[in-house]
Amino acid sequence: MSETTPPIIEVDDLSMSYPLAHTRVDVLRGVNLCIQAGTRVAIAGPSGSGKTSLLLLFSGLERPSGGRVVIDSVDLGQLDSDGLADLRRDRVGIVFQSFHLLPSLNALDNVALPLQMAGRRDAREQARAMLTRVGLGSRLDHFPTQLSGGEQQRVAIARALVHRPRLLLADEPTGNLDDHTAESVRELLFELNRDLGTTLVLVTHDLDFAARCDRVLRLHDGQLHETAPSAVHSTLPGTGGDTTGTAPHAVPA
Fold first, then answer.
1. How far apart are alpha carbons 68 and 218 in whole angstroms?
2. Residue 3 lies in a domain
3. How far apart are CA 53 and CA 126, in angstroms?
4. Using one digit for the tens of pLDDT, what is the confidence trace for 208-232?
5. Number of domains in the chain
6. Cα-based distances in Å from 24 to 15, 65, 181
7. How far apart are CA 160 and CA 123, in angstroms?
8. Residue span of the structural domain in which 245 resides
9. Domain membership flag for residue 234
C-alpha cells in the first residue's frame, strides 16, 4: 500500500459527552486515530468505556461533541442525515450483537433489503450469492425464528456485506454465541476480510479474537491506547471490567 493512500478512518481530536442530571459524562476525550484500508482492528476495554459509542461515531449514527471523523475521505461533519444514510448504504456495513433482523422477512429478503432500498434490480441475486458465501445457501427461505443464533449472525453479516462496503463495523459479533459458533463467525469475518478487502473494525471482549487482528486498541478513561496483538493476553486482562495490567502505549495522533 502506498504511503500516500488516504486512511479509511481518520479521527482528529474526537470528543463525546452525555448530560447526566447536573453533570456531564465524558465518554471520549481528544481521540486521534488513523486506520488504513484492508486492516483488521479490534477495540477492547471495560464495559461502559465507550466502545460502542466510538463505532456509532464511525458510522455517522451518532454525532460527536467535538472533533472530526473522516470515513473513506468523506468528512462526516459535512453531511446531513440523508448524506450519512447514503454513506452507510454505499461504503459502510454494520453488524450488531443482537442481529437486528426483521422477523417478518426470510433470510433472503433480510439480506436483499438494503439493495432493494437502493434501487438495485439484482438485489435478490446478490443476496442469494452472499448467503451462499456465508454458508447459508440452503436456508434462504427460513425466517429468523427458524435459525440458530449463529445462523442469524451469519445472515446479519451477509446483509452488512451484500453491498461490498469498504468498511465493516462489528459490535461484539460473537458476544451472544457459544464457543463453537463464535469461532466459526470469527473465521468467517477474517475470511471475508481477506477475500473482499473490507476493512474490519470490531468491538470485542474476546481476547483471542482481538489477538488475531492486525491492531488492538484499548479504550479507557475516554482515550485510546494501542498494544501489540501478541501481548493482548498479558496487557489487557479483564476487558469486561477489570482495568488492571500493564498500560499499553498511547495511539499517536
1. 20
2. no
3. 31
4. 899 999 999 999 889 999 999 998 8
5. 1
6. 12, 12, 40
7. 13
8. 9-100+169-250
9. yes
Q: Which residue in the block uniquely carries the three cell numbers 434462504?
A: 140
143 within some domain: no
What the block records as the C-alpha cell of 17 is 459527552
- CB of 239 closer than 8 Å to CB of 205: yes
pLDDT of residue 198: 93
Residue 77 CA: distances (Å) to CA of 64, 65, 70, 175: 9, 11, 8, 31
**41: nearest Cα among 249, 199, 174, 246:** 199
- DSSP calls for the chain: --TTSPPSEEEEEEEEEEEETTEEEEEEEEEEEEE-TT-EEEEE-STTSSHHHHHHHHHTSS--SEEEEEETTEEGGG--HHHHHHHHHHHEEEE-TT----TTS-HHHHHHHHHHHTT-TTHHHHHHHHHHHTT-TT-TT--GGGS-HHHHHHHHHHHHHTT--SEEEEESTTTTS-HHHHHHHHHHHHHHHHHH--EEEEE-S-HHHHHTSSEEEEEETTEEEEE-GGGHHHH-TTTTT---SPPPEEPP-
- Identify the CATH number of the domain in which residue 217 sits: 3.40.50.300
Helix-helix angle 107-117:149-161, to 10 degrees: 20
Give every residue of the chain whose pLDDT is below 50, as ranges.
1-2, 239-248, 252-253
Q: What is the 3-state secondary structure (H, E, C) of 110-171?
A: HHHHHHHHCCCCCHHHHHHHHHHHCCCCCCCCCCHHHCCHHHHHHHHHHHHHCCCCCEEEEE
Q: Does 112 map to a domain? A: no
The predicted structure's pLDDT at residue 246: 37
